[in-house]
User: Fold these one by one.
Assistant:
Number 1:
Amino acid sequence: MERRGGVRGWYGKMAGAALAVTALAVGASVWTAQADAVNAGSAPQASAPAAPGGAGDVKRVSKTIVHASDAGERGVNITIDDGPDPTWTPQVLDLLREHGVKATFCVTGIQAQAHPDLVKDIVAAGHRLCDHSVSHDTAMDRKSEAYQKKEILDAERMIVEASGGVRPMYYRAPGGAFTPYSRELAASRGMRPLGWNVDTKDFEQPGADAIVATVEEEIANGPTVLFHDAGGDRSQTLDAMRRILPWLKEQGYTFGFPVR
Ligand SMILES: [Zn+2]
């Protein structure tokens, strides 16, 4: 766990108290593995309120990679990457609506620009947006800072344009290729770096049974589950989600958003 040194004065004491409370709450959670991620994110500026408003209303968030759910210790974050896609995203949205589940959509700049109506549909249904870079370069962590900046900020602009002014609240590096620089940049734009705990590997089309089994076996590891709604035939993803959402409810899980 990252320890912050040199905290002084009243603000530091308050931040320290908040940290302690967070540590207690997380310690009681079934996901104690999340404690590091949560507490490492508690820099003083992390207490700044979220920025749900327009493009001009940008507030810094924590730059640590988040996994925790705002729905508490039995909360699950459904995250859906790489779209929007005109074939699969509407079907995913229908399925989420049927089950009353809100999710986080990590969209690329290219897909958002190509399908702005789908981005607006995502927002209108109460889901959240996440910046997934312009072109989904999974080697981004080996590229220059100028390149990373362009990929992240151009995507942010493309997503805000497509959504009609709704900002992405998270940044997920393609393939998880975060760098200290990209996390800091995203955080400065109000986009919390977003990780995952359960990789369903739906992208590899292992069969709906395998996708379901992965979630059932690994959900105890942490609350953030990774699916995809683009990049190929996602019918297995849909079949698996149709089974896994009711299963999660039966197990007492609820659905939320990643903490900011
Ligand atoms: Zn992706």
Number 2:
Amino acid sequence: MNTNTIRIQSKRLMRLPFAPAADEDKAGLLQEYGRVFRDHCRSDAHVEFVVDHLMSTSQRCPAPAEIVQAAGFVQDRAAGDGLPAACDVCSKEGGYWVSCEERIDGRSGAYWVARRCTCARGRALAEADRRAEMDRRRERY
Ligand SMILES: [Zn+2]
């Protein structure tokens, strides 16, 4: 696997919210990213597609465990992402999230929130979110 690919794709993940600063052991996290890419991705293209997926779905700089998990279900670009195809509803919004209008009790007005779709693809993504959240909790405690 190309060292340059790992460096470039790891740097992309550092653009997500809550990425560590240089004095917060950013170098250490980049090193862990390199390790999980080498251990869990099959090719440079696979690394790139895993990061594309994380850039589209992660709301913060991912833990190495989230990369491992994404590498498990995100396939090489040529093979698609390994999930069921997007339905008519979620394909219009890129196949990962759908925007929903939601009212929050006790507040006036409605808010637009991103949700997983109700189709087979959306349910597979929601299940992946649930597993990633469980991994995050395990890391925290
Ligand atoms: Zn859908």
